Amino acid sequence: MPLLPGEGYTMKGSSGAVNIGSQQNYVFKGKPYNGDFTLPITAGGDRLIGNPYSSAMDANEFILDNIKETINGMVGRNAKNIFNGALYFWDHFGERNSHYLKEYVGGYATYTLMGGTKAIANDARINTTSGILSSKEPQQYIPVGQGFFVIAELDILTDSTTTTVEGGNIVFKNSQRVFVRESGDTSVFMKAAKSKISGKETAENKVDSDSRPKIWLQFDSPTGYHRQLLVGVDENTSNNFDLGYDAPIAGVGKEDMYWTFSGSKFVIQAVNNFNNQQELPLGLKVSKTGLVRIKIDKTENLNKNLLLYIKDKLTNETFEITEKPFEMMLDARVYTDRFALTFKMNMVADVNAVLMNEDVLVTVKNPLIAEDVSMVQNEQPVNIGIHVVMNNTIGELQINNVTNTEILNINLFNNVGQLVNSWNTNLNKRDISLPVHTATGIYNVQITTKNGTTVKKIMVE
Hints:
about 0% helix, Immunoglobulin-like, 2 domains, 4-stranded antiparallel beta sheet, 2 helices, mainly beta, about 40% strand
């Protein structure tokens, strides 16, 4: 049966005398595709597509070529939003000799511009002994022949956004291609967790590192279901729906957990901060009364002093999950607005907690820490040529880096040394504008570069 360029397919497993766990060879005849082409998708529908090229494909470039929304400060490259901005990869990791969909053991791993999540483990028999998820987590680069679904529908109920998904022609371009070997850490389905990216990087298709803070949560249900969720920080996003970053859930399991916002359910969410005021609602579905567990699966680029909590809105209690999981006996029901992920900066644990005066960094003894901390006074800024201005008219912290010094991160502290906000992405440019939404008062801006640290006092009005 001929396949159109970019069209995906599914295969039935072997049966009969052959063991269901045995591998089977299949023969495909044809030639590699090259060039730009399209596949139609109907509004409100979904379509199974795949990487048609003889090289890896950049998932980020593919998403950007199929949406019109503004992403990372750039306007999307399409005249309309073709699909909902997420890619869904079926992961079939249960050996069931059945053609009935309801008996399949597996789920959809998901990828957006924020990152990827593993598929739900939807059968207690495959994971209860180890309590782990599938080992396959989508990454930026899609291997040769890898199929995935896109959905031309957006079920956002309460968001004020005017974002719409219209369907149309799915765009494949040569510019989406990149030379990255399939065994690399950034290939969609990793084969070796410790392997290195291999291959030549071109100017057009450079393998970029991602310095954005990210948190993966894992939910373990009473009957043995396991769900992974991702939340990350990107300064171009919000707590509402952001096309290309947030991923609607591809089907809720018998027992499940998901982010809830904009009247919908999500497996991936992007926000613009992890500060003390941030509260990210979680929805839980429990089919059998029993113990539920929520824990940190992994993190990336996270401040070492940031503490994570699960908040129970019914009792107004918070439970720290930084070192150990949250566990609670719950009755069988759907919990739509009881639990949330919250954050707090642990200044006590940081012996370098600072009080800052204008252009002077003063390290002091914290009375809750046993050791003395040496006093450093009259330390002068080491970065001449970095100018800081608080533009209260538009609520932006504006930094002019006239010497193009490499900036590693920027922190905003209040006048008692508490961290209010932190930025560590998109800083290597001459003019930097950072949104500041905080109470009126005096604050200190700490700019860390490869040459040292500069501190500047500002007034927020």
